[in-house]
Amino acid sequence: MGRFREALSRPGLAAIAEVKRRSPSAGDLRPDADPADLAARFEAAGAAAVSILVDERFGGSLADLAAARSASKLPLLAKGFFSQADQLAELRRAGADAVLLLLRDLTDARLIQLIRFAHQLSMDALVEAHDADELVRAVALDTEVIGVNARDLDTFAIDRGAALELVASAPRDRVIVAESGVTARAHGAAAELAGADAILVGSALMRAPDPAAKLRELVARPLVKVCGLTREEDVAAAAEAGADLAGFILARETPRRAPAVLPVPDTVLSVAVFVGEAEAADADLVQLYPRQEGKVRGRDGVLLRDGEQVATVADLPWQEEDPDHLVRAREVEGRLMLAGGLGPDNVVRAIAATRPWAVDASSSLEATPGVKDHERVRAFVAAAR
Fold first, then answer.
1. CB of 262 closer than 8 Å to CB of 282
2. Burial 146-157 (b: 16+ CB within 10 A, else e)
3. Range of the domain at 66
4. Which burial class, exposed, middle or buried, applies to 318 when counting CB atoms under 10 A from its CB (0-12, 13-18, 19+)?
5. What is the DSSP letter of 105?
6. pLDDT tens readout for residues 125-175
7. Is 276 helix (H, G, I), strand (E, B) or coil?
8. What share of the chain is helix, strand, coil (3-state, %, to 5)?
9. CA–CA distance, 51 with 182 (Å, rounded to integer)
10. β-pair type (285-289, 301-305)
11. Cα(77)–Cα(53) distance, rounded to whole angstroms?
């Protein structure tokens, strides 16, 4: 296993931070980008690897790859349009640990030749697919690291939803990288829950005033969920505060029941909350609790994506306390969404005690049942993030 693949295979969602001065679709992004400076800063900000555009159409060159190599110990991915073995050898000499290979530009025979040659050079290959047919090809050719690009290279349009479905359909024994269109933490979370091992982020970093700070924001955990939303103005307040997930309780037994899953901004994932049995809902995710006699819900729930569990919700018993709640939560295996009595005053301590994937608050952020106090929402999100 090469350095690049190994870095992306570690637990959690990895991030490949990209250095590119311009984009054919968006024009100049960061014309004065210094690849050495950015590579070093991305390493400090938590990147698993750094991608360097070496094609002149993106304002890049082999010199950029060499400069990044001199400043960072992270695995480097060389991005461009490659079809010849001598190109790969040149990239390796300049410091690349991996190379991008586009399925749309290569025959199966040529792709296999290039992958084998890359391995001889101790390089990994990121094989990029743009549609279902190309993904089938990548899997059939037994490629180990597959990139799923949300951008149509002909129109430059981004279809994040279609890309997520491709990610979800990919075999779990491959390393899957979700590419393009990641500008918010919710986008990375959606890719992660669909099955991606890593995200590749370029334009969002290059456009940011501080690219390293933007990267740190995208990979930071926990995510923040504001639940019990019943009004569009409260959804807007939660999104403006920086919440990543918006929860809509559709169980009939609670005063916080929402009329429906309300519209959310592109930077937020919607979560439909049910008790007993999930129903059809126009939401990105479903949070499901068991029924319990005499109570609105049972204690702990699950977070589902297309019916598959992707996280465990560790909650308090309905309207009860448990002094061992954080101890129990800490023992949860896999992704943990921590809920139950969280608010601006205690969420920092709870995060330190349990290291959750996400935190979830509802009643503590209310002015009255079902109506959010916007100041408390802002305080909770700020404390959690």
1. no
2. bbbbbbeeeeee
3. 3-219
4. middle
5. G
6. 999 999 999 999 999 999 999 999 977 666 777 788 888 999 999 999 999
7. coil
8. 35, 25, 40
9. 15
10. antiparallel
11. 9
- For residue 184 the two structure tokens come to 């918010």
Q: Are residues 115 and 207 in the same domain?
A: yes
- Which of 184, 219, 254 is at the close of a domain? 219
Supply the pTM of this predicted model.
0.94
* Residues 147 and 192 grouped into a single domain: yes
Tokens representing 94?
Answer: 């300049």
For residues 146 and 245, membership in a common domain is answered with no
Going by DSSP bridges, is the β-strand pair 285-289/145-149 parallel, antiparallel, or unpaired?
unpaired
Structure tokens at 348: 């920092």
> For the chain, how far is it from start to end, CA to CA, in angstroms?
35
Rounded distance between C-alpha atoms, residue 223 and residue 343, angstroms: 14
CATH number for the domain harbouring residue 54: 3.20.20.70
How far apart (Å, rounded) are the C-alpha atoms in residues 107 and 171? Answer: 22
| Domain final residue pick, 188, 219, 250 | 219
Please give the C-alpha separations between residue 317 and each of 96, 172, 270, 355, in angstroms, as whole numbers: 53, 35, 24, 21
For residue 173, which amino acid is it?
Answer: D
Amino acid identity at 376? R
Q: Are residues 138 and 167 in the same domain?
A: yes
CA distance 243 to 249: 17
Q: What is the mean pLDDT of each run of 10 residues along the chain (385 residues)?
A: 93 96 84 95 98 90 96 97 95 97 95 96 96 94 92 74 92 94 94 97 95 96 97 98 97 88 97 94 96 90 97 94 95 97 97 98 94 98 96
CB 79 within 8 A of CB 104: no
- Residues 6 or more apart in contact with residue 218 via CB below 8 angstroms: 15, 182, 184, 185, 188, 199, 201, 204
Same domain, 278 and 294: yes
Q: What is the pLDDT of residue 153?
A: 65
179-195 burial, b for 16+ CB within 10 Å, e for fewer? bbbbbbbbbbbbbbbbb
Helix (H) or strand (E) holding 325: helix 325-330
Q: Which tens digits make up the pLDDT trace of 239-248?
A: 999 999 999 9
